[in-house]
Amino acid sequence: MLVALAAGVGEELLFRGLVQSGLSRLLTDWPGQIVAVAAASVLFGLCHWLNATYAVLAMLAGAYFGLILLLTGNILAPITAHAAYDFLALVYLIRPEGLLPSEE
Question: Which of 21, 41, 54, 59 lies in the 20 to 30 Å Cα band around 13?
Answer without folding.
Answer: 54
